[in-house]
Amino acid sequence: MHPDVCNPACLVIQKNHTATFRLFCFPYAGGGASAFRQWSTHLPDWVEVCAVQPPGRENRITEKPVSNVHELVKLLLPSMSPWFHKPFAFFGHSTGALVAFELARKLHKKNLPLPVHLFVSAARAPHIPEPSPLHHLPKDEFIQELRRFSGTPDAILQNQELMEIFIPILKADLAIEETYTLIDETPFEIPISAFYGSRDKEAPESVMLPWQQYTTSFFEICRIEGDHFFIKNAKNTFLSSLTHILEPPH
After folding, report:
1. Cα–Cα distance between 36 and 22 in angstroms, integer?
2. What is the pTM of this model?
3. How many degrees, rounded to 5, is the angle at CA 87 between CA 82 and CA 93?
């Protein structure tokens, strides 16, 4: 069956049959494909937004969340690879940046089509460990520490029923980056653009700049006014910057 008429569970595709390019978007810890729901209205009409849906949330809520990036990549690849027949790029925010990076590396190893650009956002370079891991903390401490990210509303943090569902997902996602060990490989030739928030204490410019060493091609770093979740709180400014970098396929 042609991939355009069959959506795998791991992708939520904002269908655009006139698009000549796909942007695969990988969500932050605790997030899902809905984080990118309105992006297609802000991006050029030649871009089709393909939001990645990891197990354990939204339409995959009954599945067990995955806490290892290599296992997650292994699960995503078979469903995503049929969609690589058009030129494409990867965008990942926070934990999603690491997943996008490792998936690009896997494609490179397997001699599969590669993204023409890697966009990493609010994420430390892969060789820089998380200085204050959370995923192992007891429930009350874990919830208290979540407040530092400014991404989970207090109304949710204080709702015990919601947190019973949310904590296992969030802990698994955080474990993806907090237990990650980089395996050294030759940098690839994919251009990398790194976005950081001006008030983001988790991923400031100093830990974003070292992404440069993972490409032998073009690298740039882009500052967005905002905190760790500038893709939500400064969405228009951010998507305008992203659009400026994207280039239509020739």
Report:
1. 13
2. 0.91
3. 85
Tens of pLDDT, residue by residue over 160-206, are 777 777 888 888 999 999 999 999 888 999 999 999 999 998 899 99
| pLDDT value at residue 166 | 82
The type of residue at 85 is: H
Q: List strand residue ranges (DSSP E) for the chain, in order.
A: 11-13, 21-26, 47-52, 88-93, 118-121, 192-197, 219-224
Instruction: Answer yes or no: 94 catalytic.
Output: yes
Could you say which DSSP state residue 9 is in? T
The one-letter code for the residue type at 146 is: L
The string over 100-131, giving b where at least 16 C-beta atoms fall within 10 Å of a residue's C-beta and e elsewhere, is bbbbbbebbeeeeebbebbbbbbbbbbeeeee
Q: How confident is the model at residue 138 (pLDDT cuts 50, 70, 90)?
A: confident
The Cα 103–Cα 126 span in angstroms is 13
Q: What is the mean pLDDT of residues 66-94?
A: 95
Q: Which residue in the list 94, 132, 150, 198 is annotated as catalytic?
A: 94
DSSP state of 202: S
